[in-house]
## 1
Amino acid sequence: MESSFRGFLKSLREHGELVEISRPVDLRNVAALVPQSDKAIQFGNVRGYPTPVVSGLLNSRARLALAMGVEYRAIEGKLRAAMDRPIEPKITKRAPVKEVINTGGKVDLYKLPVPVFGLMDGGPMITGGVVIAEDPEYGTNAGMYRLMIKEKNVTGIDIVTPNNLRRYAERALQKRKPLPISISIGVHPYEMIASTFKAALGQNELGFAGGLRGEALKLAPGETVPVPCIADAEIVLEGEIPPEGWVHPEGPFSEFNRLMGGLHMNPRVRIKAVMQRREPIYYALHMPWENIWMSAPIYEAAAYRVLREAGVTATAVNVTPGGCCHWHIAASIKKSPGDGKNAIMALLSIADIKHVVVTDDDIDVFDPVDLEWAIATRVQADRDVLIVANARSKPLDPSLPPVPGGIPTTAKMGIDATIPENVPRERYKRIVYLNEGRAKLKNYLDPAGKGDEKKSRPGNGTASTLEERLLTALAKSHAFFAEILETFRSEEFGDIAAAIGKLNREKKIAQDAEGKYYAVAEGLSQTR
């Protein structure tokens, strides 16, 4: 697959994951239509705009897997490899996004088909842009931030939460200088996912995008700002964050936590140029689910990393959509004594993670019923629940009391749902149905199905009755009732049950400590 936005759309189309709507659509209806589809949508005829709109590209595991070019559960490994071996971007002179350039008085953001998502949103929100900024000391930073259109050449930008772009803006404000930025809209998911990674200050997230690609990401030099943009983006905005500070009202907005966020005080961005392809496609990252799903692989990669550093072997990690792919992690591990608690402490060290459940590797952490069952059957609260107070928070957590002018701290919790060290593991033998995986319902529902197929097995040729043959078999080895049924598959179920009953009545067989039958006839051992 070509590693471009259009290449990704082509892949979605070829895999039946993109619906293309040609009928006229009012921009008012886009946000409501997208969640009704189990596929991504391209609106080719948006009333009043020449530019088509695509949305819902990343709000499923299947489409994330297509974007990353691997199965979903292999995404974490690909991300980890990209972080371990980043490839720094390169500047190129050829930039498809510069086919049309509007500057100065020709800048008009209202010509872009930017929808309103929520009923109480403050205005049209640009949601799918990769924001690139540079700092003289720390270098290039990339991230994804919403920008509310306020005027034809002015947006807000939400950088309330502590992050590297906020740090850059604060440093520029201290010098009373504007912070130049570029906003690349309509780029490959490699760039979007890499940009959501919370890299250390001074680490360029676009190098992770190169690692995912297997080659350097191509950047184009700025036209009106000294900051590059992604060369093959559909649309790029160039602008500056003026040295005004966090003094302008911005929002409300339909946040990733599936709740309406409030009005924030934020900086503004003055847009100096709009660059685009001749026939661009506008990408409206749909809130909240695209935002939620895009975060999951990043946190999963972080989870595997911290567990590995803690010496704990993880077999599966699920950053759950119910936790908005920001706050909850369920992880299964190959447990050694004490690993459950060590895993909890490692996972709670990840910045935004609030609640963690750790299980043994026999639990499917992607199955909510299996996960809840582990909690119900393996946890004693006074022994297995850890609570950490006054930890770093995600300020959008609505359960936190507001702290005017500050950022509140949060409580974090971990649940050790592994089998306790002082409880025999034999107490956790799961039910396995007789002939599970062999008996197929379709064989009975399909008119052409064969139903039961009797497969004859010859007896041993020496016993004249079923009871005698059973007794001879149980003298050789102890067996559960189901194992006896399997050994004597040529006999009817009822005949075997009656024979076992007769042998029980005659006290010729008994059950051992596991519940297996054995022969107790004279001269035969009564223990295994």
## 2
Amino acid sequence: MSTDSPSQGASGTKPTYKPGSQIIVDTLIEQGVDTMFGYLGGVVLPFFDKLYDAPIRFINPRHEQGGTHMADAYARASGKVGVVVATSGPGATNLVTGLATAMMDSIPIVALTGQVRTELIGNDAFQEADTTGITRPVTKHNVIVKDPNDLARTIREAFYIASTGRPGPVLVDLPVDMQVAQVEAAKPEKIKLPGYGVRTHGHSRQISTAAGAINESERPVLYVGGGVIIANASDEVRQLAAKAHLPVTMTLLGLGSYDQRRAESLDMLGMHGTAYANYAVQECDLLIAVGARFEDRVTGKLKTFAPRAKIIHIDIDPASISKNVRVDIPVVGDAKMILSELAKEVEYRQRAEWFAKIAEWKAKYPLRYDTGTETIKPQYVIEEVHRQTEGDATIVTGVGQHQMWTAQFYKFNRARQFISSGGLGTMGFGLPAAIGAQIALPGQLVVDIDGDSSFNMTLGELATAVQYELPVKVCIMNNGYMGMVRQWQELFYGKRYSCSSLKNPDYATVARAFGAVGITVDKKKDVAGAIEKMLAETKPCVVDFRIDREENVWPMVAAGKSLDEMDGLDIFESMA
């Protein structure tokens, strides 16, 4: 408990007492935190007062949700734990969407929220909310501190839980009386969490069984998810693919884990994946899944997914094994360690017939779009961004058609190069995430490829980019629609475009009002020049590309269909 009269310690030395707010700041510094995001308010003022003198950079977003996305993208870009702070009540509840986004994509975040005094909890005090109750479904772990002596230990445990095993967001709720109480500054103790165990080393027999299956297979496919990037196992994926000569396909969040410029790359699979990736998965005799969870946008109709394949599943989360798809050879543990061991036991096989078949699919069904129109095609814009950035920018997106076009037409070659909301599909993610990524990667090029509907949701964060002089680039694919919704309405609802059209502002004018650079492009011939100008800017820059209003994302596997039942392939063939 707290005390106002420090007593003599048993060793004869007087213990050191500090306010809880200082203990919190000291513990954050101890955990290596040098950057935080968030919004202040009444019950976190004691903490912010101590933060004033701390060697921690603090970024104020214009909305707490934006701050959570910034912390999320900071974590994705840097590999560190992102930290976000909010006050009680609406400040804390505004974090929910960002926490759910991080939870679905296994991103390590620690959220610190203020809370009313402990004696007021449950009395409907001003700006009181049941933060732990509200956020329990969208966090890996959460806790409210009710003893100031638990502050340091609880925060240390939060960082440990967030960053180990399958990572995820952890929330610590901090009543204001915990922040002002006097606390003895104790030395860190070894973290002991009964019931929380992390298995890192895979079972040697399972690894050998997996290696044997790879060596025997005629038509294998290596299927890589975001867990590989989280585990920093991209080099090990490339080593395994080279050693055993495996074609590699990636999920949306797995993009960058394997160099898409290599012939073995099948690019992305799934609903809007490449035809050659989807056909390969449906025809393979062995599917080696690493750090992927067989999500519905990847598998299509579960009963017909990879019907000819034996399945190996490597994942650190035992709860993911056989959750959606029955697995023949499970290997639980850290992907980096397991892949390293697996590579020692696999053998090189030519598999000429299999790679010839893949080459045939690639030749017949490359990603295409109509290049002969005068309208601006979004695919062309993305290809031009790729060309002028030499494929080396960090690319962030919102959610919608633009996200899928980016995944298809910007070819990624390294881990943490592509940052997007996967599982939750959070519109508005793009701009704040680009800010978080830019802060994590000072001096590097960060480009947000966004949609108009997605950008509208968080465009106020342009003020944050301007305030902190962050040279983020924003390319808006502006079609005046909620594009993906409109596409579904076209295909499945008889073109009844109910509530999916928008009246957008003049984005270039809006950008200039915020103090950023704004450019409008409505002619195809001006696309390259606008991108060149954007990339040369040292200030935040928004380019509004007025794209073809009813362009669709192809190919597409409709809900309930098998991966090899793709719409749009006839359109590809007509363009050949």
